Amino acid sequence: MAIILTNISKSYGDKQVLTDVNLTLSEGETTCLMGPSGIGKTTLVRIIAGLTTPDSGEIIGITGKQFSIVFQEDRLLGWESAYTNVMLVTTNTNKNLAKQMLTQAGLGDSIHKKAAQLSGGMKRRVCICRALIAAYDVLILDEPFKGLDSGIKPTIMRMVRQYAQGKTVLCITHDREEAAFLGGYLVEL
User: Fold this and answer.
1) Are strands 185-188 and 168-172 parallel, antiparallel or unpaired?
2) What pLDDT does residue 100 have?
3) Once rounded to an integer, what is the mean pLDDT over residues 42-58?
4) What domains sit in the chain, N to C, each tagged with a CATH number?
5) pLDDT tens across 128-153, in order?
6) Which listed site, 24, 125, 130, 181, has its alpha carbon 20 to 30 Å from 162?
7) What angle do CA 174, 145, 63 make, to 5 degrees?
């Protein structure tokens, strides 16, 4: 079932962030959301995921859906290894898959390093692997490729396309090439 947002509005105090936003996320499809900074993209995805309540409007199609999210911030347990951070969202039956994904993401030599010891780009890759291995119906990516160097970015984008195939994906990006690569329906706020 599609996720349908109708007339979603949200303000923080006197600042109106979203006004009567209408959006449909087709099941099993990728939607890429673009727009200038501060226009409310992150607020909108937080509303879809149930982390923020809209002031008005309606969302249908989210009941019973499981979400996996890559936030703008990495949100890792710094005292745990990259591997443990990924395994936090899955079952022991996926141990090999977790190692495979981390290796595919160029982290094979860092699987057992504590997250606090990883570079910013490495942390980002751990977050993406963690989101992709979780059991989810909807994958939300809030600027997921930010901070990745140009050498590894195409690999990580291919991983997202590979592991999220057939899932509903909402990706916030400022890069039209990323949106095109993910094959997403482009929506501009």
Assistant:
1) unpaired
2) 95
3) 93
4) 1-65+140-145+169-189 (3.40.50.300), 67-135 (no CATH)
5) 999 999 999 999 999 999 889 989 99
6) 24
7) 85
| Residue 9 confidence (pLDDT) above 80 | yes
Using a cut of 0.90, tell me whether the model's pTM lies above it: yes
Q: Would you state the pLDDT for residue 35? A: 84
**Which DSSP state fits 55?**
S
Rounded distance between C-alpha atoms, residue 43 and residue 58, angstroms: 15
User: Which helix (H) or strand (E) element contains residue 6?
Assistant: strand 3-12
